[in-house]
Design goal:
Blueprint (H helix, E strand, L loop, with lengths): L1 E5 L26 H14 L6 E6 L6 H12 L3 E5 L9 H8 L13 H12 L5 H11 L3 H13 L3 E4 L2 E4 L7 H11 L4 H13 L2 E2 H6 L3 H9 L3 E6 L2 E6 L2 H10 L2 H17 L7 H12 L5 H13 L3 H13 L3 H14 L3 H11 L6 H18 L5 H11 L6 H14 L6 H10 L5 H17 L3 H13 L11 H15 L3 H8 L2 H8 L3 H17 L3 H15 L6 H14 L3 H14 L8 H14 L3 H18 L2 H13 L4 H10 L7 H14 L2 H13 L3 H18 L4 H13 L19 H11 L4 H8 L3 H15 L7 H7 L7
Parallel strand pairs: 1-2, 2-3
Antiparallel strand pairs: 4-5, 6-8, 7-8
């Protein structure tokens, strides 16, 4: 029986106040404290007619003295078990503290929730996955405190600031101070004097803010008092002593509670203080411009434009857009118009982007600006509006521009268009022209190399593409500040190459890279969305289909407004769902992929066709799947996409048609980079020959690459081959299969994993289990009152059914009867 008690500050001084709900209401009058304690013990013991009592006490540090004594006595006397929580930093009553110091109960110190823990908890509470950027913001704001996280989520749900869209929960980031949340925060902060409140507000609006700056504002003493109250702390960062808030929530509260007029005055003063020191830090420009904008004192278009570019370079699209609009309104001219238009395209507002850019056409002053205008117009029209004719318009514009005036800009954009449209004829000419141009900048060289790199990866040169993208990344400082969106072209080429080369460690490294962090925190949804697709693809290859489905759904939700990669995200969702044995989701996602896929992104067609094939398989139409793959192979060969061809041929192997793939895979082995193609070719040969030893070697090679799905499928084929031939390696194959499956999700379901499990009679199973422990036939016969000949006959039938030849192989074979996907 579990008896629960919630101790509070209100019950801390009431005898049995916390335990009133588990004790009778009519306490006997006139009892001494000892008698009252005995009465309570007797009443609790009466509630234990069967089994133990478990006392579950929340906030045990707030127990009143006699309740603490009662809990201690019940536990120490063995009448009850205890599950209690005590808040860190609070003094627990001596009887409670003595329980763990005396070793009567175990004490487990719980640290703050990690970001991963926060995501899991939020998904469980909300009933569905939560956008990772929302998880990150909530985790940072709560600092892993479960109580604060709960109040943040409750407040956000009550005001509609957290909502479900496209199967994913998102938080807007706007904090609502619900009464319960205010109480939690006020309990931590307490009442503030006007001076301390002002100091906290300065830090909240300016964090991190130099101590010297606060001293210049006349707040030295107030900062000391705030530090004594543990509201702020001093952090030595480089050569500066900065003041920071001790908890992010204090900043949110201070900013929300600060009246608008005082906030504007404070922000303007902060900008003035930093400008007076010379704004020497690299981020001072962006901070000052933002403070000027928020305080209504932003009048310098050049300051706003430069800050807009800086925000764009850090992929903070919302802030960059605000600053860009302000720069344009302040008279920023062509530069502000062109930058804002590109920003709006990446923010999913292509129609407005076109209007702004077209409106800037009369402002063009020279051929250099004309080249920029045509390049940006092409980007917006082709990728933002999905206009295929933009390729020809960009080509015509380039022909009218003098080479030295920026023709390379337009040619680089056209090169990327040609790649994405899978129009290979003119690509080499365009890239060569850009790379040969003496005035071409590093950014347009990078985007041209990325364009051809994407194509080369599809053609089997993934290793070369990855090497070239690494070189571009190393020189990114030369172009990222001016053209940060070119990073997406690099990531797409690199992501394609990594997946086609099955270089999963490289995927992990890119996901953990600084760009991925900036993409997530800065709302650069095209960048973070595409990287999330790559993450889903890597999870699928590893056999972690649950994660693959989750990341594909997350990518779809992020990319849905931009549409550039939405079809790709939906295709990956369909592919992963099909492998997870969820045909309903796979069918719906495949249909959506077809609907969302843009003709301007036709190079992505292999992913849609792989999804279509596996969706057919999951729906029970395996012949339909084979037909899709055969049609796909014809198209891939026509386009020269040998890397994709390897995957399509290997899918035929996985679907039981290895003979069809043996010769072409052997031919492609020398034409495709990476370790995957040779292993896939040997998989086809071993499966076609039914060679159990070769299949086990192939499975081990797949496992070494991290391709646990393929490893498990190869091992399953090995088990089947071993059973047919009664090979001595069948037990080894069974053990390997179980090992590989244990490293995949249990939801995984493909034809290559289906293993027809033989049925043993009760007697056969009984004898086999005894024999697997080393018991001799004679001992089994005596124990079961059978003849030895009967036992040996049963064992012979068991060997035939399980495909083994001796007793030492029985243990693994018997375990396989209840392991893994079966049919």
């Amino acid at each position: 029986m579990v008896l629960t008690a919630n101790a509070t500050a209100g019950t801390a001084n009431l005898p049995f106040g916390a335990l009133a709900q588990v004790l009778p209401a009519d306490q006997p009058p006139g009892l001494s404290p000892a008698g009252l304690l005995r009465w309570a013990v007797d009443n609790l013991r009466l509630q234990r007619p069967h089994g133990d009592i478990v006392l579950a006490v929340d906030d045990a540090h707030l127990l009143d003295p006699i309740s603490a004594a009662l809990v201690s006595f019940m536990v120490q006397s063995g009448h009850a078990r205890l599950l209690a929580t005590v808040r860190s930093g609070e003094a627990a009553p001596e009887p409670i503290r003595a329980l763990w110091t005396g070793g009567v109960v175990d004490r487990l110190d719980l640290g703050p929730l990690t970001e991963a823990d926060t995501g899991i908890l939020l998904a469980q509470v909300l009933g569905d996955d939560v956008d990772t950027a929302s998880v990150a913001r909530l985790w940072r704001l709560s600092q892993g405190n479960a109580l604060l996280l709960r109040e943040l989520v409750l407040a956000a749900r009550a005001t509609g600031e957290i909502e479900q869209s496209h199967g994913l929960w998102r938080w807007t980031g706007r904090l609502s101070l619900a009464p319960s949340l205010s109480e939690v925060i006020d309990a931590r902060i307490g009442l503030l004097s006007p001076e301390v409140r002002t100091a906290v507000e300065y830090v909240a609006f300016g964090e991190p803010i130099g101590l010297a700056l606060l001293s210049a504002a006349g707040l030295s003493e107030a900062v000391e008092l705030a530090e004594e109250r543990h509201l702020v702390h001093l952090a030595v960062e480089g050569r500066r002593s900065n003041v920071r808030l001790t908890h992010p929530i204090y900043g949110e509260v201070a900013r929300q509670r600060c009246p608008a007029t005082r906030a504007r005055r404070l922000l303007a003063h902060l900008a003035h203080l930093v400008e007076a020191t010379g704004a020497r830090r690299s981020d001072d420009l962006l901070r000052v411009a933002t403070w000027r904008l928020d305080s209504g004192t932003a009048h310098d278009p050049e300051l706003l434009y430069r800050a807009c570019r800086q925000a764009f370079a850090s992929y903070d699209i919302p802030l960059a857009t605000r600053l860009g609009r302000a720069a344009l309104a302040a008279g920023g001219g062509f530069d502000a118009s062109e930058t804002l238009a590109v920003l709006l395209m990446f923010a999913g507002q292509a129609d407005e982007a076109v209007r702004i850019l077209d409106g800037a056409a009369p402002l063009i002053a020279h051929d250099g600006e004309r080249a920029r205008w045509h390049a940006s117009r092409g980007i917006i029209s082709y990728w933002g509006l999905g206009d295929e004719s933009s390729r020809d318009a960009v080509r015509a514009a380039a022909e009218e521009l003098p080479p030295a005036a920026g023709r390379f800009r337009v040619q680089a954009i056209e090169a990327m268009m040609r790649v994405h449209h899978n129009d290979q004829a003119r690509l080499g000419e365009l890239v060569d022209a850009v790379l040969a141009c003496p005035v071409a900048d590093a950014g347009h060289r990078a985007v041209s190399i990325s364009a051809v790199g994407h194509l080369r990866a599809a053609q089997g040169e993934a290793t070369r593409t990855m090497r070239e993208m690494a070189a571009i990344e190393a020189d990114a400082v030369q172009w990222r500040s001016e053209m940060p969106y070119f990073q997406l072209a690099v990531e797409v080429a690199c992501g394609t190459a990594m997946i086609l080369a099955t270089d999963l460690p490289a995927v992990d490294a890119v996901i953990a890279d600084e760009y991925a962090g900036m993409a997530e925190t800065g709302d650069f949804h095209l960048g973070s969305g595409y990287l999330t697709v790559v993450r889903a693809q890597a999870c699928r290859l590893r056999g972690r289909v649950r994660d693959a489905v989750r990341y594909a759904r997350l990518a779809r939700a992020r990319l849905i407004t931009g549409r550039i990669f939405t079809g790709l995200a939906c295709a990956e969702l369909a592919h992963a769902a099909a492998l997870a044995g969820d045909p309903r989701t796979a069918v719906a996602a495949t249909a959506e992929a077809d609907q969302q896929h843009l003709p301007t992104m036709s190079i992505l067609y292999p992913h849609l066709e792989f999804a279509r094939a596996w969706t057919a398989t999951a729906s029970g139409n395996q012949q339909g799947s084979i037909d899709v793959l055969r049609r796909l192979l014809d198209r891939l060969r026509a386009d020269g996409f040998t890397a994709y061809e390897v995957f399509a041929l290997h899918d035929l192997v996985r679907l039981g048609h290895p003979h069809e793939a043996v010769e072409p895979l052997a031919r492609l082995t020398g034409q495709v980079d990476g370790a995957f193609a040779p292993v896939a070719a040997r998989h086809a040969q071993a499966a076609a020959a039914g060679d159990i030893r070769a299949l086990l070697a192939v499975a081990a090679d797949f496992a070494a690459l991290g391709l646990m799905l393929f490893a498990a499928e190869a091992a399953t084929t090995a088990v089947q081959a071993g059973r047919r031939t009664r090979s001595a390696h069948t037990a080894e194959a069974t053990t390997q299969r179980m090992e590989y499956l244990s490293r995949c999700d249990p939801d995984l379901s493909t034809p290559g994993l289906n293993l027809c499990i033989p049925t043993l009679t009760d007697r056969e199973r009984q004898i086999a289990q005894l024999a697997s422990t080393g018991t001799s036939s004679g001992e089994i016969a005596n124990g079961l009152f059978l003849s030895r000949r009967t036992v040996d006959n049963h064992l012979m039938r068991v060997y035939i059914k399980l495909g083994v030849t001796r007793r030492s192989q029985l243990r693994a074979a018997l375990r396989s009867l209840s392991t893994g996907p079966t049919q």
